[in-house]
Write a structure and sequence with these properties.
This protein is an alpha+beta fold and 373 residues long. It has 15 helices and ten strands. Among the domains are: 133 residues, no CATH class; 94 residues, no CATH class. Strands 1, 2, 3, 4, 5, 6, 7, 8, 9 and 10 form a ten-stranded mixed β-sheet that branches.
């Protein structure tokens, strides 16, 4: 079903010139066919000789700044931005400069911090950085500086939109930076063995106490005595622990935004399980980030087309009616449907889906193409 994508219809809006957009179309089509991060596997899915395809991919990546292309997938009408890191293991990478130790302190790998906007049940990535314990040590940086570096790249895009982050971002240095840059936030509090220091107006410590089934709100607190925040706690029945979110927004708004953060985790799952991004093996960090950006571009286009196919194959029930049984509309992402759903589709169905996907895609492109390195 991947062959049904007329990829050049998308790439002509992303890359400068007929030659570059045609090469991009062939490579992105091969990425979706190969579902592997190995350049040799992608080259084998390209037309003609595999060795020629391999060289064509290398030349293409030398000519194009793919992270700039990815930035064009920012959705200007998105109400918020999701940021989340994911670990990529590189167990055999003994001599790779950007590979360090993961959170367990033993496994070799690196972190990929992704910024994305929500799209249906998934999120569309538009920016990312990579870093590791080794790059932090060798570049004399810190986790905070890497997180701020990711945000620096999107300040003009963010505007008044809040950024939604998980608990590893609940530390003073980042909050001070967000407040200084006037970036709105909804961040899950880290409430493990060392509860956060939250002070009320009288500068007395506030304990976060909640029971199952409750919502608890604390307004006008000071995180570690410095950053003004509102805090909301939510404990759903059946869950082993509550969720606490701190924000500079209205508390219930922040909670609702945070609960949509799962969209980006589903995106990570698709990138790894459906496209094989977790098997990436580049030796240089620059080439690594080029390949990651390439995969995210392929993912975004595949998601647009797959979601349009979902609408054609599994239309939503009429208002007030429930489907009789669970169908792939509920179970799978559009990318899964595109890559793995074995159905014989009429030409008219494919054409209609691509047309709807193009409409959603073109709505993302408010500025001219600038893609050369």
């Amino acid at each position: 079903m991947v062959d049904c994508i007329r990829m050049v219809r998308f790439t002509q809006h992303l890359f400068e010139g007929v030659d570059l957009s045609s090469k991009a179309a062939r490579i992105l089509q091969a990425v979706l066919r190969a579902r592997s991060a190995r350049l040799s596997d992608i080259a084998r899915e390209m037309p003609g000789n595999a060795d020629a395809g391999y060289k064509q991919i290398q030349r293409f990546m030398q000519r194009v700044d793919l992270k700039s292309v990815l930035m064009r997938f920012f959705q200007a009408d998105a109400k918020f931005v999701i940021g989340d890191p994911t670990e990529i293991e590189r167990r055999q990478a003994w001599k790779t400069g950007y590979v360090g130790k993961l959170k367990d302190g033993k496994t070799k790998g690196f972190w990929m911090l992704v910024l994305a906007t929500p799209f249906r049940g998934r999120a569309i990535p538009f920016h990312f950085i990579t870093y590791s314990s080794r790059t932090i040590r060798e570049e004399a940086t810190s986790r905070n500086l890497n997180h701020c570096r990711a945000l620096d790249g999107i300040k003009t895009l963010l505007g008044d939109r809040p950024i939604v982050l998980d608990r590893e971002f609940s530390y003073l240095g980042l909050l001070l930076n967000l407040v200084a840059e006037e970036v709105h936030f909804a961040i899950r509090l880290h409430t493990g063995s060392h509860p956060p220091i939250l002070l009320n107006k009288a500068r007395r410590r506030v304990d976060l106490v909640i029971s199952p089934g409750q919502d608890v709100i604390h307004e006008h607190l000071l995180y570690k005595g410095e950053v003004p925040v509102n805090v909301i706690g939510h404990w759903r029945y059946g869950f082993s622990k509550p969720l606490w979110v701190m924000t500079d927004l209205e508390p219930h708004v922040a909670l609702e935004l945070y609960q949509q953060r799962m969209k980006i985790e589903e995106t990570f799952r698709d990138l790894k399980s459906l496209l094989g991004l977790d098997k990436i093996m580049n030796k240089s960090q620059h080439n690594l980030e080029q390949i990651i950006a390439l995969f995210m571009i392929a993912y975004a286009i595949g998601l647009f087309v797959g979601e349009a196919l979902r609408d054609q194959l599994f239309p939503s029930p009429s208002p007030g009616l429930q489907p009789l049984r669970t169908c792939p509309r509920q179970l799978y992402s559009g990318l899964f449907i595109l890559l793995k759903f074995k159905a014989r589709l009429a030409t008219a169905v494919i054409a209609s889906a691509i047309q709807h996907a193009m409409q959603a895609f073109l709505a993302l492109l408010p500025y001219p193409v600038r893609t050369h390195v």
